Structure formats: structure tokens, C-alpha cells
Amino acid sequence: MPELPEVENVARTLRPRLVGTRVLGVEASGLPLRRPVDLARLRAACKNARVTSVRRVGKYLLLELSSEKVVLAHLGMSGRLVFAASSEPRRPHTHALFALEGGLDLRYVDPRRFGVLRVYDLAQLEASPELSVLGVDPLEDGFSADYLHEALAGTRRELKGFLLDQGCIAGLGNIYACEAMFLAGVAPRRRTNRLSRNRAVDLHRAIRSVLETGIANRGTSFSDYVDADGEAGSNQDALWVYGREGEPCRTCKSLIKRVVQGARSTFYCPRCQR
After folding, report:
1. Which pLDDT does position 268 carry in this prediction?
2. Domain edges within the chain
3. What is the average per-residue pLDDT within 84-107?
4. pLDDT tens per residue, range 169-181
5. Helix or strand or coil: residue 111?
6. Which CATH architecture has domain 145-268?
């Protein structure tokens, strides 16, 4: 699933060609995504409107329009928002197409159909079911070491589950949670209320570091992820533990282990993360 760095890179590659461009029309496959797509509402919001901004909140992409509407998109497990020439044949699993002026399309492609495409009034966006439940974005000023320490101390959950809770930290996912725990030297099953303030400071620094590295490397591409220009990222080559079960730790040479927590694989070094 695309996480914060991947979604941020999609946003950054969308902006140069999308902001200021007029949407001429919208087409859809008719197949539902995670929720059914309200094609009539999507068309009414987009037709002849200009895109005024593209931004990211957590793992959501927000396309603001001159019609005072916002298209909210989530890429789910396998979704892509990519540019294509209008003359180019549509790829399989293209479930939405935004026809843009200048002979360009923005196409939403999603083989597994776990994504989301919804339209909201700009004034009601923050109260939407998707955004209203999100915690602080880890790249925003509100995500401080003090915030993280207080949030950790306020519960007795396993650390990995806490980090994946979008109501606590918006945008952090499985890959970058594993990487951050490794850099902070914290075991994934450690109880959150047992982390000292110094450990919380280490973890705060590690979360920021792995996310910023992921963005700089244009995201982690194992299979589906590409940015809006169709380019894969390279962060998979810089991972410390994720996906490296049985391989030697880059720090201490112990073999990386994998456990399952909450139906998701957790990768860690048993020596560096005691």
C-alpha cells in the first residue's frame, strides 16, 4: 500500500501539470472501488473547473477545484494516478479518467479496487469521514517529540500497532514503521507506556528520518507503486529491515527476523531492537 512518502511523491509530480489546468470531463468504468464512485457528483464538480491546488493529508490526495469542490483520492493497495496522452489506449483496470485540456488525461488505475474517489464541498472537507478521524501528520509542526511521548504514555498497546493507527499518526504505514523502530532501536512488541522520554525522542527523530529519506528516494516500489509520471521509486534499495527476513542486519550482521502483528509482517533485528 502506498504510504506517506509515496503519496507525497504522487502529489509532487501531479502539481506541475495539473494545477491551473481545466478538467473537460470525467469518465468511469462503473465498477465500485472500496466504496461506489458517485459519477454524477464527480462530473458536476469537475466539468470545466480548474485545479487550484494538489495537496496531501496522511495517505490521502486532495485535488481542490475552482468549483469550490475537492476530489479526495486514496490509492488503496494498488491504485495509481498517472498522466497519459488522450490518444493513448487505456490500461486494464482504469476506473476513472479525468480529461484535461491540452490533450492530456489523468487516469486512476486500480487492479484490486481498494482505493477511494469522493467529492466534498471545500468548506466541509475537514469534517469528512476520511479526514476527521486522522491524527497528526508526522511531517507537520504538530508532530513533536512531546506529542509523541504523551501519546505513547497514554496507552498500553504494542508499539507497532500504535504506529500504524492513523488516528495517532496520519500517513505512517507498515514499511516506514518497521524502519523507524529499527533506527530508534525499539522492539516492535514493546508496550508504548514503557518507552522513556529519551526513547520517544529517538523514535520521533527516526520517524521523520525514514519518511524524509523515502520522499527523497521517490518512494518504495516493490510492485505497483509509481508516481504520476509513471516512474518507480528507489527507496527499496535503502531499507534497513523491511522485506529482508533472513538477511544480515546492516549494522550488527544478525539475521533479520519477521513476525506477524495484526495480520501484517513486521521485520526487525533481534539484537539492535532488544
Report:
1. 98
2. 4-127, 145-268
3. 96
4. 999 999 999 999 9
5. coil
6. Orthogonal Bundle (1.10)
The lowest-confidence range among 8-22, 56-70, 170-184, 210-224 is 210-224
Contact predicate 139/208, CB 8 Å: yes
Side chain identity, residue 127: A
Look at phi and psi of residue 80 and say left if phi exceeds 0, alpha if psi is from -120 to 50, else beta. Answer: beta
DSSP 210: H
Grid coordinates given for 228: 504520476
Q: What positions carry a catalytic annotation?
A: 2-3, 59, 264
4-127 belongs to CATH 3.30.70.1520: no
Give the Cβ contact number of residue 226 at 10 Å: 21
List the strands of the sheet with 80-85, edge to edge.
Answer: 23-28, 94-100, 104-109, 80-85
Q: Is 37 exposed, middle or buried (0-12, 13-18, 19+ CB in 10 A)?
A: buried
Amino acid 197: pLDDT: 96
Q: What is the rounded distance in angstroms from the CA atom of residue 163 to the CA atom of residue 141?
A: 18
Sequence-distant (6+) residues with CB within 8 A of 33 are 76, 95, 110, 113, 114, 115, 116, 117
pLDDT for 101 equals 97
Q: Average pLDDT of 49-71?
A: 98
